[in-house]
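Ticket #4471: structure output looks truncated?

Reporter: J.K.
Steps to reproduce: submitted the chain below (118 residues) through the standard prediction queue, then opened the result file.
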Amino acid sequence: MADFGLFIGFGWPVRGREQKAAQVFNEFVAYLTDLQEAGTIEGWEPFFLEPHGGDLGGFFVVRGERDSIGRVRMSDEMAGLATRAQLIVDNFGIVGAETGERIGAQMELFLQSSAELA
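Returned output as attached by the reporter:
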């Protein structure tokens, strides 16, 4: 099971550019589908949030092994898609994430560090 991932968040489309925003969203879907079919990532899932007055309109969660996620994050393809997304939707961002068994390791590190700084 993958212990690493990417959180790819996005806000609302730039007004008047909704069709282009949908196009870029579909480019992300195609890219992530290709990565999963090639075995580069374990999987991915999109989420749309209901209107709530905040900046986040939706996000993708991408899961994979640490090295694979790192390569995806730093790839030219991801850089190109991220640039296109930033131009067409507000509040776009990509953040690395840890999950699964890594949560326990991160909590252990937090508790150790906080005890040392108490």
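Triage note (M.O.): checked the attachment and the full token line is present. The domain at 4-116 is CATH 3.30.70.100 (Alpha-Beta Plaits).
Status: closed, working as intended.
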